[in-house]
Amino acid sequence: MAWPVLVFDIESIPDIAGLRLLHDAPADASDAQVHAAWVQERKDKGQSDFLPHHLQRVLVISAVFRNADGLRVHSFVDRDDASEGKVIQTFFNTLEKHVPQLVSWNGMGFDLPVLNYRGLRHGVTACKYWDLGEDDREFKFNNYHNRFHNRHFDLMDVLAMYTGRANAPLDAMAKLCGFPGKLGMDGSQVYSAYLDGKLEDIRRYCETDVMNTYLMYCRFQKMRGGFTEGEYEQEIALVKSTLRMLAPQETHWQEYLAAWG
What we know:
This protein has 261 residues and is an alpha/beta fold. Strands 3-2-1-4-5 form a five-stranded mixed β-sheet, sandwiched between helices. It is built from twelve helices and five strands. The chain has a single domain (5-27, 49-260), classed as 2-Layer Sandwich (Nucleotidyltransferase, domain 5).
């Protein structure tokens, strides 16, 4: 398996400012009232209350970065309610610097469209990410946007044979493969956790989710011959040793290792 690899996952919350602007909310309405009014409007129309991609405000981007020097876990977090653009720009700067293989679980269906819309909103630049071969001929045949190229590897999409009705949830597949799966919360609880001031809990949840994705990617590499059995076992041992080093400062890794058994 070739390095570098960047596995990523995002957590997002409703863009209340966007809802106010697009739905002409009363100036004296609270954030909760604006959101509740939108949800009720959708329910009255028999529609899902899941916000469209362009109104998903990016709160956290977590990544597992693996290259020849080792494995790292890192998160870009919007901590001051005004740095969403900076968070997204930092993520794309990482792509620009390392040009890694991107790996996600449903990244083509959710994470990347959200980053595209929100990055556009904030004036983010992402030249290498958008290169379709104009600047680098290699990208004509292997770029981040073609569904059937490997520069972005949406593991859920690939395993489902690009058939939406065959998609499987990450949590279920991780647990079936002997990995911990989701810890602490799930995506539907992120906004309420944010309102309760639990930003660090959201960051930790996102990191465990992205680690599940990396482990599933390793498992897939063994399946397709990218790893031998021995190389796969070595990679799993590296993950565990890395998390043990992080665990004294980050309790979610203690819980993750314990759940892993």
